[in-house]
Amino acid sequence: MPIDLANNLGSVVAAIGGLGTASFALVDVSKIGRNGGVSNSGFSFIEGAVRQLFPNASRKPVSVDQGAGHRLLNVLHGNWINGAPLGDQKAIAKSLVKLALSAQTAENFAAATGVDSTTLSGAAASMTTGASLTPEQTNVLGRFDLALTAILDEGYQRADQRYRNSAKVWASIVAMALAILGGWTIADTSASYFWSPDMWKAGLCGLLATPLAPISKDLTSALAAGVKVAQSLRK
User: Fold this and answer.
1) Which position has the higher pLDDT, 188 or 66?
2) Are 74 and 54 in contact (CB under 8 A)?
3) Residue ranges of the domains in the chain?
4) In whole angstroms, what is the distance from residue 107 CA to residue 90 CA?
């Protein structure tokens, strides 16, 4: 039975938006996986940022030397897959890295941030013992802080972009599958449905579902108002 788009366009858009919302919810279920499912997407960029400071860091430590980097990555990974606010995650990462600053880690930290390793090591020793910092050490710590912020910000921004794009891609795939299966359930026969124009229309609706989901309510209201205006003018 053909659909009267002039009077049902709002309902069609709302249905497509609802399909997109359902698809996002189904993709979100993958978070119960061991590594966080789709929420694990993008964390490799954060790992890359951390490994600039801890070259041997791994979430599976094989030596005592990897302990600090290992613990840091585990904490950051837990925050990432749990969906903590991005600003809070960067603040926690920065605090933990600065907490790990010592005479032993100063060389790697200095190499990653482009500051003098000897001065940074001296500043770390002074902070450990509670001694006063020299002007040179204060200056180095300030530059180290700025460089560290830039490194972590780059990692988190790229990670967030990868996560959002991955979630949208998977949600689009799920939405297309659901739309095609939904069309199949109401088709006259399976043989006449698959690879028919109706199947491609259903797939197109599924493809539109993900971008329409966040704005479907507002778009439906706007379309309904537009249709009423057009009908009034026609009369």
Assistant:
1) 188
2) no
3) 5-234
4) 22
Joined together, the tokens standing for residue 129 give: 């013992």
What b/e sequence results for 101-127 when a residue is b if at least 16 CB atoms lie within 10 Å of its CB, and e otherwise? beeebbebbbebbebbeebbbbbbebe
Quote the CA–CA distance of 53 and 115 in Å, as a whole number: 13
State pLDDT tens for residues 202-215: 888 888 887 766 55
The answer to whether 176 and 200 are in contact (CB under 8 A) is no
Angle (nearest 5°) at CA 41 between 46 and 109: 5
19 close to 33: Cβ distance less than 8 angstroms = no
Task: Say which residues have a Cβ less than 8 Å from residue 141's Cβ, sequence separation at least 6.
Answer: 120, 123, 133
| Backbone φ and ψ of 35, nearest 5° | -100, 10
Distance CA 203, CA 195 (A): 10
The upper half-sphere exposure of residue 229, i.e. CA atoms within 13 Å in the direction of its Cβ, equals: 6
pTM for the whole structure: 0.77
The two three-digit tokens of residue 192, written as one number: 């006449």
CB-based contacts of 63: which residues, under 8 Å, 6+ apart? 56
